[in-house]
Structures are given as structure tokens and as C-alpha cells.
């Protein structure tokens, strides 16, 4: 809870064995072959309410790839990502994560998810460190956090330049800082696959560049990335492939330079969600 109840339990001797366990976990999770699909959607359809939102999405992302999902507002980008994590049920088609049908997939520590930011206040009086620690739950389950967990949280905060705000209440952060905390939360589990829904939304240009650097380091580690974007921006050099959606279907797939020709410029009716530098935007971190 905010602002001063962070645990500092644990001893160094304890930690050595715990680090070993985490290393063992990591070894177990890096067995995917280089060209093996990390995620695959085949003919995926989905409805929200009574509206058909996805109309047969085919998408494969292989290990180490960085794929941008582009398209105008309402084309189904977020819904596609949310079907992958089971937040939106599919009405037809197949989804696989790491070669396992999604309905049987349980190894969620391999997946980091950054949700699309919202303007709804979460209302939970949590500190930055607590929110980022929640990203570690897929590894810690219900056991108390160990030194390796606290170390991973600290490292994730360092990666997004928020280590000095660990004890602050999330309510005290700006919109861009919230976004950085959400990214740190996803990184805390040291995932192999990062799913990011507009990770740069509301982040000023300098911070976008810092986050692009963070992402580059993840990609160099072999992390696979699928991210929803409205524009490539500082992430452009990292993107291997762009997939453009329109009305719940894949309209175009190819090198990122071709994406705008194929359906974005002509339908440029989407909102760019970037806030001006220093803008105070409240987000629901936990929603
Ligand atoms: N909870 C919901 N109930 C009904 N319809 C919804 C719901 N959420 C989204 N939709 C509709 O589903 C469609 C796809 O939405 P989605 O959020 O996947 O699009 P998007 O491409 O991510 O858009 P944006 O760029 O605005 O985030 C839109 O027409 C949207 O209005």
C-alpha cells in the first residue's frame, strides 16, 4: 500500500538459492526453436456485444520477431491482442501460444502484457513497486517474494527509468510515467513474449526514445514482440514486419515502410493519443 509499507524482508544467504531457482525457471522457458511460431492466430473471429469485431484474423509471429499491428481506430487491433491473452473469447478459429492451443496454455510467465491505457482512475492506493511486483505474480504464484523477485522488480524499474519512484504512490504519477510503470510490470516477469497495446501512448518524445532503447535491449535478448501502434515513431528501426488491420481483417502485411501506403494514410481518421510533454493524464493502472 502507499506510501511506506514496502517489505524489505530476506537475507543474502537466502537469495543465492532463490536466484538459482529463477535461473532454472528461465532455462525451462527458453526451449523454443528459433523459427518456431511464438504466437499464431488462424481464422480468428470474435464478437463484442453483438458486434463482430474480428472477421478471420491470420497472424503468425516467430521467435525474435518484432511485429507492429497497425490500423485505424476500431479496426480490431486491441481485440486481436486481447484474444491472445483470453480477455476476449473467440467465436471461431484457433490461437496458439508457444505451440500450445491457447485454451490449454498455462505458462503465463512467458508472456508480458501492457494494456492500452485508459483515463479511468484505478483508485487502488498502490506504490509503483507494488504495481510492478504484480507483474511477477505469474512466477511467484502465492509464495512470498524472494530476493530474486525483488531484484527483477528493481531491474524492471531501472529499465524504464523509474527506479527512483519505487516507493511513490501511482496516483502521484503523470500519464507517461504510468505507462512506464505498466511496461515495467510486463518486464518484471522476464517474459519471452511481450504484447503491448499502444505502449507509447501519452509518453513524451524523450521518454519514447528511452523506451525504444529498453525494447531494443529486450529484442536483443531474443524477446518476441507484438505491439499495437498508431505510428512507428522511434520504434521504427526495431520493427521487422507491419500488419495492417481494417474492419477486423488483415489488410496488408509486409516491411514497415509499406504499411502506410497500404491503408493508413488513406484512412487517416484515427486519433493520435500522444499527450503533450508534461501533460497530467490520469490512468487506471490496474484496469
Ligand atoms: N466492450 C465492447 N463492446 C462492444 N464493442 C466494442 C467493445 N470494445 C470494442 N468494441 C468495438 O470493437 C471494434 C474494435 O475495437 P478495438 O479496440 O479492437 O479497435 P482498435 O483497432 O484497437 O482501435 P483503437 O485504435 O481505437 O484502439 C470497435 O468498433 C469498437 O467500437
UniProtKB/TrEMBL annotation:
Residues 1-33 are annotated as: Disordered. Keywords: ATP-binding, Nucleotide-binding, Transport. Signal peptide: none annotated. Residues 39-272 form the ABC transporter domain. One of its GO terms (molecular function) is ATP binding. The keyword Transport applies. InterPro entries: AAA+_ATPase (IPR003593), ABC_transporter-like_ATP-bd (IPR003439), Metal_Ion_Import_ABC (IPR050153), P-loop_NTPase (IPR027417). It comes from the Bacteria. Pfam families: ABC_tran. The keyword ATP-binding applies. Gene3D superfamilies: P-loop containing nucleotide triphosphate hydrolases. PANTHER family: METAL TRANSPORT SYSTEM ATP-BINDING PROTEIN TM_0124-RELATED (PTHR42734). This is Metal ABC transporter ATP-binding protein. It comes from Streptomyces griseoaurantiacus. The lineage of its organism: Bacteria, Bacillati, Actinomycetota, Actinomycetes, Kitasatosporales.
